[in-house]
């Protein structure tokens, strides 16, 4: 890049065209994900501090369902891999296969959100809502924030499928797919922390 | 100017194809990541649901260690993070994030644990009033 500046006949100190880093969007999106890490880190810290403050109410071992958790974890992990398959098909420019894998990923994630909402609903019905204790407030905030991210990811996925259907694999859509792919895998990564730290370690504390 | 532009495009095009190859991974990498993730998920579930160890703290430590390993597996095999993607800036920001996350989590737990143990014991009378 620096050699091109020297090559020009008249050297200028004024840049006529703004210089963008190559693939700046992907780096920028990565930095967004890293800042999202901080949100989750602070919520994890809240749960770590407040997880045993049950105020005489139900403890983690009383309310958390590990069998449902296993299904949820499997759904999200498989969804992450099927999104990877969609990315591989995109390299081969096979639109039908990409749409199929995206739809599978979206449905698996929708199943995840549905199961999570049902778990929340049954907990609230049992009197273990977010207002019951500091433990439950931090639990609902952390797991709910993750669920909200997954829901927004599904919305993004639907919009992207429409865009892919209309405009095909143009440069913008490929870039969007790369960003959503990072987002999708990132949410699965955060879920590893959630199921290990909040659920599995939580029921033992 | 026109010369520099065409040169720019050539470089750009080359880097783009290189990045595509690097970023999407391969079927092999996704399947390797998947198998490792399944193994690293099944073990902690088995440790907790099968009551393998008597001591809860042994189980919790193992579960958290396995989670850290699985997060690294996800980063390498699904997010395809390596030292040369985006000229190393991805890795740099990732390492920076890890450092801050460790400080936030570690310091919160450490400080609040000490806060809890060193707090003046509350008399039952005050606890009652607090409710």
Question: How are the SSEs ordered, and which strands pair?
Answer:
The complex is a heterodimer of chains A (205) and B (131).
Chain A: H1 2-7, H2 24-50, H3 60-63, H4 66-91, H5 95-125, H6 134-167, H7 171-200
Helix pairs in contact in A: 2-6, 2-7, 4-5, 4-7, 5-6, 6-7
Chain B: H1 2-24, H2 27-49, H3 56-77, H4 89-118, H5 124-130
Helix pairs in contact in B: 2-3
Brief characterization of the structure:
Chain A is 77% helix and 0% strand. Chain A is mostly helical and 205 residues long. Chain A is globular and about 70 Å long.
List keywords for this structure.
heterodimer, A: mainly alpha, Four Helix Bundle (Hemerythrin (Met), subunit A), 7 helices, B: 131 residues, mainly alpha, 2 domains, flat, disordered N terminus
Structural summary, described in words:
By secondary structure, chain A is mainly α. Chain A has a domain at 70-205: Four Helix Bundle (Hemerythrin (Met), subunit A) (Up-down Bundle), CATH 1.20.120.80. Chain A has 7 helices and no strands. Chain A has helices spanning 2-7, 24-50, 60-63, 66-91, 95-125, 134-167, 171-200. The longest helix of chain A is centred in the C-terminal third of the chain and has 34 residues, at 134-167. The model of chain A has no long low-confidence stretch (mean pLDDT 90). Chain B has 2 domains: 1-80; 84-122. Chain B has 5 helices and no strands. Chain B is flat, with a radius of gyration of 24 Å. Chains A and B meet through helix 1, helix 2, helix 4 and helix 7 of A and helix 1, helix 2, helix 3 and helix 4 of B.
CATH architecture field of the domain at 70-205 in chain A? Up-down Bundle
Range of helix content of chain A: over 70%
* Secondary-structure-derived class of chain A: mainly alpha
- Major pleated sheet of chain B: none
CATH class of the domain at 70-205 in chain A: Mainly Alpha
Structural class designation of chain B: mainly alpha
Count the strands of chain A? 0
State the domain count of chain B: 2
Assembly state: heterodimer
């Amino acid at each position: 890049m620096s050699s091109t500046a020297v090559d020009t006949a008249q050297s200028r100190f004024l840049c006529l065209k703004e210089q963008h880093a190559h693939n700046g969007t992907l780096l920028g999106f990565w930095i967004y994900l890293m800042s999202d890490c901080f949100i989750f880190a602070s919520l994890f810290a809240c749960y770590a501090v407040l997880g045993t403050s049950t105020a005489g109410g139900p403890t983690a071992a009383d309310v958390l369902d590990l069998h449902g958790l296993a299904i949820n974890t499997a759904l999200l992990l498989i969804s992450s891999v099927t999104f990877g398959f969609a990315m591989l098909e995109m390299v081969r420019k096979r639109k039908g296969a990409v749409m199929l894998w995206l739809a599978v990923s979206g449905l698996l994630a929708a199943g995840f959100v549905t199961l999570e909402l049902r778990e929340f609903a049954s907990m609230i019905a049992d009197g273990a809502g977010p207002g019951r204790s500091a433990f439950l407030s931090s639990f609902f905030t952390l797991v709910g924030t993750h669920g909200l991210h997954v829901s927004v990811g599904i919305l993004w996925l639907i919009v992207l499928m429409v865009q892919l259907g209309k405009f095909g694999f143009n440069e913008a859509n490929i870039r969007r797919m790369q960003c959503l792919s990072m987002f999708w895998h990132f949410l699965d990564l955060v879920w590893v922390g959630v199921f290990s730290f909040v659920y599995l370690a939580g029921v033992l504390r | 100017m026109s010369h520099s532009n065409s040169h720019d495009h050539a470089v750009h095009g080359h880097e783009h194809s290189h990045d595509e190859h690097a970023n999407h991974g391969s079927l092999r990498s996704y399947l390797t990541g998947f198998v490792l993730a399944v193994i690293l998920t099944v073990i902690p579930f088995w440790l907790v649901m099968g009551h393998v160890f008597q001591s809860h703290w042994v189980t919790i430590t193992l579960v958290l260690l396995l989670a850290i390993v699985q997060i690294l597996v996800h980063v390498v095999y699904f997010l395809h993070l390596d030292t040369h993607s985006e000229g190393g800036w991805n890795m740099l920001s990732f390492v920076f994030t890890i450092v801050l996350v460790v400080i936030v989590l570690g310091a919160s737990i450490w400080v609040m644990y000490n806060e809890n143990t060193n707090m003046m014991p509350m008399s039952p009378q005050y606890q009652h009033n607090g409710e």
